[in-house]
Design a protein that fits this description.
Blueprint: H1 2-10, H2 19-26, H3 30-42, E1 47-49, E2 55-57, H4 60-63, H5 67-75, H6 78-81, H7 99-115, H8 118-126
Antiparallel strand pairs: 1-2
Helix pairs in contact: 1-2, 1-8, 5-7
């Protein structure tokens, strides 16, 4: 998510940002990050252009996507549907010890991530309300 936010922030006025710059800015291994960003590009969450003046960017359509799209693309939807203990057999009929509390937290997280767009976060980042650096 930090990479997507960084790309949105750095390309808000047009242009593109390269993988080396993104990796250095978010302190992530370049090869690991490249695979993730390629997958996000294939899924249409971010855009990419190859070549010497290439890089990653987000267009207006991408900025309208909810943060949940990024989470699901990278980690799948298990964070929204899975058991807090990772059990396959956890359900309302056969709950694990964390079931009810985790379901409440999981539903709140899903609500937040589906209601906030990449663009909304980027606006707050541009205004200095949100920050990417530690």
């Amino acid at each position: 998510m930090r990479a997507v936010f960084l790309i949105a922030h750095r390309t808000a006025n047009g242009g593109r940002v390269g993988i080396k710059d993104i990796a250095a800015s978010i302190d992530s291994p370049e090869h690991f990050l490249a695979k993730i960003l390629q997958d996000l590009s294939k899924r249409g969450i971010i855009q990419s252009v190859k070549g010497p003046h290439g890089g990653f960017y987000l267009d207006r359509k991408n900025l309208e996507r909810p943060l949940a799209d990024v989470v699901e693309a990278v980690d799948g939807n298990s964070i929204f549907t899975g058991c807090g203990l990772g059990l396959e057999e956890c359900s309302s009929e056969r709950p694990c010890p964390l079931h009810d509390d985790f379901m409440t937290v999981r539903n709140q997280l899903q609500k937040m991530l589906t209601s906030v767009t990449i663009g909304q976060f980027n606006e707050e980042l541009n205004l200095g309300i949100r920050h990417l650096k530690r």
